[in-house]
Amino acid sequence: MSHSVSVLPYLVKFAPKTPHQFDGYINVHSFDLDHTLIRPKRPKATFGNAPHDWKFMEYDTGPAINKLVEILKADTHACFVIFTNQGGVLADPSTSKSFLNFEKKILLILKAVEAVDSGEEFLNRLWIYSSTKKPAALSKKIPTLNSKPGKVNKHSTSGKSNLKPLAALILLSEKFDEMRKPATGLFVECNRDLKEILSPTDGPVNWKYYCGDAAGRSTDFSDSDKIFALNTGVSFKVPEDIFNKK
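Now predict its structure.
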């Protein structure tokens, strides 16, 4: 397998096992996943219903993967990052059906990429960061630490004040919120990883753009991709800006 998988309750990361050794700096081309790079096989479906239910998006220039390989060949410093919200994927526990299906889907996508021209080289430059579903227990309102003095917290099992578990719950809940676009947690995590790769040369990480379909247009379901780019300070592009240009 080309990538290692790191799983936290609020974050799933696929990183290349043998990342490309960049000389001096990295140019990051970043993308949303669903309805930007892939879509369900069924024409009117919003999300796939099984790990195999996907195909590469088709644009004027052909399948999305073809354009990505073209970018790779034109930019020797190119790195590719996918940021995706997966609100239906529960990663805690990592044995959940939704997580196992998502993992299998990503592995199938990576396998398909490997089969195209320059696919292996592309995989060595590809990172995937996904936010996941907040468990129902954390979706409920969690009392604050400075609530009424002396009040026994409902999360306490001892009948006494139990601030450490409560603080941990609050921090964990906040992590889920931080990782979900348009919040910037996925970007921060990725930027840190890429800088570690460059640490021997101390070169810059140049974020070229973030490309996504949720741009707040009349036909879009939201503007979350556009706001994500705004929040991270990265130039925003809709898929047509990238994939319909020859």
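The chain has eight helices and eleven strands.
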